[in-house]
Amino acid sequence: MRGYFAVGLEGVSKAMNLGAVMRTAHAFGAHFVFTLGAEHRAREIAHADTSRTQDSVPAYHWQGVEEMRLPRGCQLVGVELTDDAVPMPSFRHPHAAAYVFGSERGDLSEDLLARCAHVVKIPTRFCLNLSMAAAITLYDRTLCLGGFAERPVRPGGPHPAPPHTWGAPRKRT
């Protein structure tokens, strides 16, 4: 898969949620993770982040939106249930993206939404668990940009092409 992505959380207050999202980001191959205004203790994060993401993936912890620095060309994608958000099945993921999720009991701040190049929503009737929303978003990115074959028309997986067999030699006359 070309490009890179990051996962960020704004205002997360539960260390277990932060750890679960970090583990999910690590599993999907995130290039860095970040928090904005988060309250957490590293020891508590380890209970959910059994992959020890911070040992393998850079983690940035900023106090607020104004401190956040993303690489040049990286598009900030807010994942939020807003009326004008693009439903995720209709969204084309950028090659260089930083996905940001809101806190457990709140929405993304107006300042952060203003910095987002895109705002997408998972088409559900109500909010999902924070780590579940991150997992669905990264799975969708993987499906769209992972270089997988198109889904078959019939149920089941793709059927591999039979191996090529060489015919008998042809003689020119």
TrEMBL record:
GO BP of this protein: methylation; RNA processing
Biased composition (Low complexity): 164-173
A Pfam family assignment: SpoU_methylase
InterPro entries per the UniProt record, alphabetical: Alpha/beta_knot_MTases, rRNA_Methyltransferase, SpoU_MeTrfase, tRNA_m1G_MTases_N
Region (Disordered): 152-173
Keyword Transferase: yes
Keyword Amino-acid biosynthesis part of the UniProt annotation: no
tRNA/rRNA methyltransferase SpoU type domain segment(s): 6-139
Domain of life from the UniProt record: Bacteria
Gene3D superfamilies (UniProt xref): 3.40.1280.10
Name of the protein in question: RNA methyltransferase
Taxonomic lineage of the native organism: Bacteria, Pseudomonadati, Pseudomonadota, Alphaproteobacteria, Maricaulales
